[in-house]
Design goal:
357 residues, alpha+beta, Rossmann fold, OB fold (Dihydrolipoamide Acetyltransferase, E2P), 5-stranded antiparallel β-sheet, 32% strand, binds adenosine-5'-diphosphate, Transp-assoc_OB_typ2, ATP binding, ABC transporter ATP-binding protein, membrane
């Protein structure tokens, strides 16, 4: 299995167009599962196409196992791709779909049979080997596509939104299976998705991409608790992080020109404006702690293990998470305490300057 390294990889599709990918630099260790997450147009497919060799780099380099792949033909790069739409051949059985690439490479019958059965056992596909794809569920089809990728024993697996056409329950199930497979095979995997929840659950490391540029690289928890900038803070986490305009005054932090929690953030410059970001689980309600403000309850979402309270204070709307079984009524006045040790402060360049301890 391989390592892959990106050295300032940039791609422009046309001379006078903007960069689809700019200075993408990343080292993926052997056996690591790195998830690249970004919204549509952020450059995810471009990255995969550059690795596969379907597109040429504008500048920079990509190395697999320490060797530049730029002069290698796509078929020689030894990477296997699993797509969103499975790309199975409908007239062939599951067995023949898994065996297809090996037959083209003229591997021996015995070798093919061994590998098909090995992959089918790992992915619990043995009962379906004689069946054609149309008889299978979406999850089973995706497992066939994974098996087909596995039998190549590639240096690198590339997964292009492999779960996005499955329904929510199957998606959970498949993401667990892919993660388990990754652990069993100790495979190096680059996994691309627009879905931040999928990204958080799958990744050893996450790469957040926006408009062709890496915004942050880190473990899911690092990124959640220590977002580098406002974009990352808003992109990761549901419900989305709450944001307030704030000003560091002589006395503490002034929120939305109204309240003044007496917390000193010494790292913030006095009389400067910041955006304060705080996650819903760090806004406590009816707590026996100091009340920072009293907000109007506009909407309640009971999710079972927790309740989301949509609150309004002056012009600020925000969401607090509550973990007890209390029943709330829309229109209630709710006492709110901000756990400000968990708040993040962003400057006018949208960089995080402080907070999130
Ligand atoms: P994603 O996969 O994250 O949706 P893409 O890599 O497809 O993003 O696109 C990144 C940027 O590159 C977008 O602005 C897109 O319009 C542009 N782009 C992608 N493919 C091409 C192409 N073949 N020709 C010109 N521009 C392209």
């Amino acid at each position: 299995m391989g390592t892959i390294e990106f050295k300032q990889v940039s791609k422009k599709y046309k001379e006078n167009a903007g960069y689809a990918l700019k200075d993408f630099t990343l080292q993926v260790k052997e056996g690591e599962l790195v998830v690249i997450v970004g919204s549509s147009g952020s450059g995810k497919s471009t990255l995969l196409e550059l690795i596969c060799g379907f597109e040429a780099l504008t500048s920079g380099d990509i190395l697999i196992d320490g060797q530049s792949i730029q002069d290698q033909l796509p078929k020689d790069r030894n990477v296997s791709m699993v797509f969103q739409n499975y790309a199975l051949l409908p007239h062939l059985t599951v067995y023949e779909n898994i065996a297809f690439g090996m037959r083209i490479r003229k591997e021996s019958k015995q070798q093919i049979d061994e590998k098909v059965r090995w992959a089918a056992a790992l992915l619990e596909l043995e009962p379906y080997l004689k069946v054609k794809p149309k008889k299978l569920s979406g999850g089973q089809r995706q497992r066939v596509a994974l098996a087909r990728a596995m039998v190549r024993k590639p240096k690198l697996f590339l997964m292009d939104e492999p779960l996005s056409s499955l329904d929510a329950k199957l998606r959970d199930n498949m993401s667990t299976q892919i993660k388990a497979l990754h652990e069993k095979l100790h495979a190096t995997m680059l996994y691309v998705t627009h879905d931040q929840i999928e990204a958080m659950t799958m990744a050893d490391r996450l790469v957040i991409l926006d408009q062709g540029k890496i915004q942050q690289i880190g473990s899911p928890l690092e990124i959640y608790h220590q977002p580098k900038n406002l974009f990352v803070a808003q992109f990761i986490g549901r419900p989305s992080i709450n944001l307030f305009e704030c000003r560091r005054t002589e006395f503490g932090i002034l929120l939305d020109e109204a309240i003044e929690p007496r917390v000193n953030e010494n790292l913030l410059e006095k009389n400067q404006d910041y955006k304060l970001g705080i996650r819903s689980e760090h806004i406590e309600i009816d707590a026996e702690k100091e009340t920072h403000l009293v907000a109007l309850l506009e909407k309640v979402e009971y999710l079972g293990s927790e309740t989301l309270l949509h609150l309004k204070y002056k012009n600020c709307k925000f969401v607090a998470k509550n973990y007890n079984d209390k029943i709330f009524k829309v229109g209630d006045a709710i006492k709110v305490h901000f756990n400000l040790t968990k708040a993040h402060y962003f400057d006018n360049q949208q960089e995080r300057v402080s907070g999130g301890k």
